[in-house]
Amino acid sequence: MMTLTQTNRNLRSGELTPLYIPSLQAQGDRSLVRMRILMVKKQTRCKNQLKALLTFYGIEIPDELANSNWSKQFISWLDNLGFKSNSGKQAFSALLLELKYLRSVISQLTKDIHCLSKQEPYKMPVQYLSSIPGISTTTSMVFLTEIVDIKRFKDFDHLSSYFGLIPGEDSSGDNEIHTGITPRRNANLRVLLIESSWIAVRKDPALLMSFNQLSKRMPKNKAIIRIARKLLNRIHYVLKKHCYYETGVVS
């Protein structure tokens, strides 16, 4: 083990990389945003369980509600379903009650996050990020609370590594095999960035053109990873330059 003196000497010489520790306020803000992500995951699980129960009891969703995306009308239909078994109805109602609770919690958390986005130090960075196609206020807050300070990343490659958008390697002796994108990542960031990229290609003609060209020589799920790097490059640009995104400025 290194002594404290050796550690300090190695830090000064640049042989060790110090860990970045966000402030207590930044950690609290991150916890708020992460809680919403957690609740959304629970809501998705709950929806899947409800649909599984519908299938189990042989109840088909009416055509007019098939694409309702869990609207109030769809929830009302679920509320008024008839069951041959009273116990089955009670089980279904308990799960539906959980869904309603989760919807309420997510709604409040979203309001709290949007309120936080209008305060310092998030106000202007959120506006900069929201000017990029595919990135909403809520998404901006996820990125900002996870990144905290863009200056802590030496360059774009270091930021890409944090998002998990660099190639993985399997090294053995003199052989190095690239294994696609690395499994090491910030779990919240990479998934959200890829989701944002699918939205961005529908809104940004330049990204759509790039995506279509990439899709001619690789599967779409790999092409979207390339688009995600382009989108991350835009995020890096506006946060470093403190500016709104302008089409054509960043490749």
How would you portray this structure in words?
By secondary structure, this protein is mainly alpha-helical. The protein has two domains: 24-117; 121-170 and 181-251, no CATH class. A hairpin with a 2-residue loop joins strand 1 and strand 2 (175-181). The chain is globular and about 75 Å long. It has helices at 4-13, 24-56, 72-79, 86-117, 123-130, 137-147, 156-163, 187-203, 205-215, 220-241, and strands spanning 167-172, 175-181. The chain has a two-stranded antiparallel sheet with strand order 1-2. The chain has ten helices and two strands. 18% of the residues are buried.
> What is the share of helical residues?
55-70%
Oligomer: single chain
State mean pLDDT (0 to 100 scale): 88
Class derived from helix and strand content: mainly alpha
Number of domains: 2
Tell me the span between the first and last alpha carbons.
Answer: 46 Å
Report the C-alpha radius of gyration, rounded: 23 Å
State the helix count.
Answer: 10
Low-confidence blocks of residues: 168-179
Order of helices and strands: HHHHHHHEEHHH
Biggest pleated sheet? 2 strands, antiparallel
Number of strands: 2
Shape: globular
Question: What is the strand content?
Answer: 5-15%
Largest beta sheet: strand ordering: 1-2
Q: What are the SSEs and their pairings?
A:
Blueprint: H1 4-13, H2 24-56, H3 72-79, H4 86-117, H5 123-130, H6 137-147, H7 156-163, E1 167-172, E2 175-181, H8 187-203, H9 205-215, H10 220-241
Antiparallel strand pairs: 1-2
Helix pairs in contact: 2-4, 2-6, 5-6, 6-8, 8-9, 8-10, 9-10
